[in-house]
Design a protein that fits this description.
The chain has twelve helices and nine strands. It has 310 residues and is α/β, with parallel strands linked by helices. It is globular. 39% of the residues are buried. The chain binds zinc ion (ZN).
Length: 310
């Protein structure tokens, strides 16, 4: 059903694009593009901020033994505050509970129920285990890798709206770049093995990661930000600093504002169609998922290769 709608939307866009100018325009006129900032109605635009992982399944460990979930929650709170202060008062901060696999279904279902315009999932990066080295910190043995640093942004081509997901991700990448932050290029390297990704926007640092569950199953444009590597000893300290968190938050606010303005140029029909899409991950979706892998339960399915948590 979702894919059927997507086909209709693409066909409609194609038709609009070939109609003679003056009848219907799919693209904004120049004067509209110049007034982008004025066209974003911030109080009407809802961003769902997804805190990556849960207290029970806290994700990666930092070089100093701190859970990724703690970093994710702290940065997401800062972003939430910055968005609200900027007038995006419908922003929702989403913290999930339970074990990783089950939490994925719950967080996607919640995100889809919120009638959001955009989902941004916040994470902090680590490295494949084979790159980890040992050191002692505060009398405890910990693991680190100073080999990689920098942020990265991921989108899924299996999202209901891959084009707008990429549009927002690129806007975010540009805002981070404008603030002097560099993305990490190492996901394109062959040594990343199953974690190797295609770089979709080499200027903004946006990678394609189709199987990421939260991006794939959320029915609004979605992106995942790995804000920095907490396995890197220097970058961990930077990521813990209020200055870096504020810098990233400001980049998110400006990217959301640009994206919101771009969305305001969408033909009304396309927005209406999206609002009619199912807003929950339905039992039907679960049935289809089970059908692909025999009688596996949804939580079992998540642990298989169809989806990736992180
Ligand atoms: Zn993570």
């Amino acid at each position: 059903m979702i894919r059927d709608w997507r086909t209709v939307a693409v066909s409609l866009a194609t038709v609009l694009a070939v109609l003679p100018a003056g009848i219907v325009r799919a693209e904004p006129p120049d004067n509209a593009a110049k007034s982008d900032a004025a066209r974003c109605t911030r109080p009407d635009f809802r961003v769902v901020l997804d805190v990556g992982h849960t207290a029970k399944s806290p994700g990666a460990k930092s070089a100093r033994g701190v859970d990724e979930f703690d970093f994710n929650r702290r940065l997401t709170r800062q972003i939430d505050q910055a968005l609200r202060e900027a007038g995006f008062t419908r922003t929702v901060l989403m913290v999930s509970e339970g074990r990783a696999n089950q939490s994925l279904y719950a967080r996607v279902a919640r995100a889809n129920e919120l009638s959001a315009n955009l989902l941004l999932s916040i994470h902090h990066d680590a490295v494949p285990d084979r790159f980890l080295e040992k050191w002692e910190y505060n009398g405890k043995k910990e693991a680190f890798s100073d080999r990689f640093k920098g942020h990265s942004i991921f989108v899924s081509d299996d999202n209901l709206d891959p084009k707008d997901s990429l549009l927002f991700a690129s806007m975010l990448g540009q805002q981070l770049k404008a603030r002097g932050l560099q993305y990490t290029p190492h996901y394109t390297e062959s040594f990343m093995g199953r974690w190797r990704r295609t770089l979709l926007d080499a200027d903004a640092g946006v990678y394609r990661y189709d199987t990421l569950f939260v991006l794939k199953k959320t029915q609004v444009p979605a992106a995942l930000l790995e804000a920095g590597s907490i396995a890197n000893r220097d970058e961990e300290l930077l990521m813990a600093s209020p200055e870096r968190q504020q810098l990233i938050s400001a980049a998110v606010v400006d990217a959301v504002d640009s994206f919101c303005a771009a969305q305001s140029h969408k033909p009304a029909l396309q927005i209406t169609q999206r609002s009619k899409a199912p807003h929950v991950l339905s039992a039907h979706s679960h049935q289809r998922a089970r059908a692909r892998t025999g009688n596996a339960t949804p939580s079992t399915l998540v642990s298989q290769s169809n989806f990736d948590i992180h």
